[in-house]
Amino acid sequence: MTLRVANSGDLADIMRLERRSFPDDAWSEQTMADELAGAHGVYLVDVEADRVVGYGGVRALPGGSDADIQTIALDADFRGRGRGRALLQALIAQALARGARELFLEVRADNPVARSLYDSEGFEELGRRPRYYQPADVDAVVMRLDLRAWAASRGTQGTEGEVRRADAGAPPADRAELGQSSAPDGSGAAEETIA
């Protein structure tokens, strides 16, 4: 398992997972390309034998007090092995490294596996958005993580950990699914697929 910062060369693999993970509401290729190139987030990929098997993004403005998990997805064949947790933890570390104190996400109310993972990492439910996920009319559970408490419980200061830069020598990553995504169009629509 290798986690690294995503780059434009990963777009086709990411879109393959996006469409498989979110058949009813996958992001467009252009939206995902814009996210990968954006200056306000970081996208990571999980690579196995030169194949992207997972990806996730966090939006965290440098110096801002909060951040959002945009999306996180993992190929079904690779679930249940701790890879989703590792990807989530790496995204949390990215938010910490950017100075965020709180991390938010939305998770489908009908995804108990994802919800259990988020609960186990310390996320707390803030509320629900009725019929948020369309066209399925599924509620979104809005969750929040206190990043300082998370870091203190792990004895870390929020470094990038084991995430390898794919573009070594480039400036620090400023680009941000386990099957979890918050729409980059500002609507906040999020997706997740975790196991």
Descriptive account of the structure:
Helices cover 27% and strands 29% of the residues. The protein has 195 residues and is an alpha+beta fold. The chain has a single domain, classed as Gcn5-related N-acetyltransferase (GNAT) (Aminopeptidase, 3-Layer(aba) Sandwich), CATH 3.40.630. A 7-stranded mixed sheet has the order 1-2-3-4-5-7-6, with helices on both faces. A hairpin with a 4-residue loop joins β6 and β7. The protein is globular and about 35 Å long. Mean pLDDT is 83; it is low at 158-195.
The CATH topology turns out to be Aminopeptidase
Oligomer: single chain
What is the structural class? alpha+beta
* The number of domains: 1
N-to-C SSE series?
A: EHHEEEHEHEEH
Computed Rg:
15 Å
Based on the coordinates given, report the CATH architecture.
3-Layer(aba) Sandwich
* Strand order in the largest sheet: 1-2-3-4-5-7-6
Give the rounded overall mean pLDDT.
83
Q: CATH superfamily, please?
A: Gcn5-related N-acetyltransferase (GNAT)
CATH structural class: Alpha Beta
Give the overall shape, derived from the CA principal axes.
globular
Low-confidence stretches: 158-195
**How many helices does DSSP assign?**
5
Number of strands: 7
Helix content: 25-40%
**Strand percentage, roughly?**
25-35%
For the largest beta-sheet, the strand count, sense and barrel status come to:
7 strands, mixed
Spatial gap, N to C terminus: 16 Å
